[in-house]
Write a structure and sequence with these properties.
This protein is mainly α. The chain contains 8 helices and no strands.
């Protein structure tokens, strides 16, 4: 079940998605602030990657694991991750599993975030390189 609703304000979305986890809230606010410049073609504006996370049930500490450990706190890589999901370059179940298991990220290297970013840039010419 998704948390984001059409009637939510930006602050509602930040609070619902962040679940009180400061690192996740930082991620969300940076993505909202920089998203339009990074992915100008997103049909959902700066909310695109957050809607992707919401559709997969990735919130709070799980969101923070992706932001901090996989994307190294880079909004461009975070947005590319969810664009890659949208474009079919990575599966939802893999994203969900990795967001719940920090050790899996560090040991298996199942997700090559740079490769995903490059694939997104190839597919979407206006995506920030």
């Amino acid at each position: 079940m998704n948390k984001i609703e059409l009637t939510d304000s930006t602050m509602d979305i930040i609070m619902k998605m962040g679940e009180g986890v400061i690192g996740a809230i930082v991620c969300i606010t940076r993505v909202l602030k920089e998203g339009v410049l990074i992915d100008p073609d997103s049909g959902f504006g700066p909310f695109g990657s957050l809607l992707g996370a919401d559709s997969l049930g990735i919130y709070g500490s799980n969101l923070y694991i992706l932001w901090n450990d996989l994307c190294k706190q880079d909004p461009k890589l975070f947005i590319a991750l969810f664009r890659a999901y949208q474009l079919g370059f990575i599966s939802g179940p893999l994203l969900q599993a990795v967001s719940k298991d920090r050790a899996r990220l560090n040991n298996d290297n199942e997700i090559d975030i740079i490769d995903l970013h490059n694939k997104v840039c190839e597919k979407l010419e206006n995506f920030q390189k």
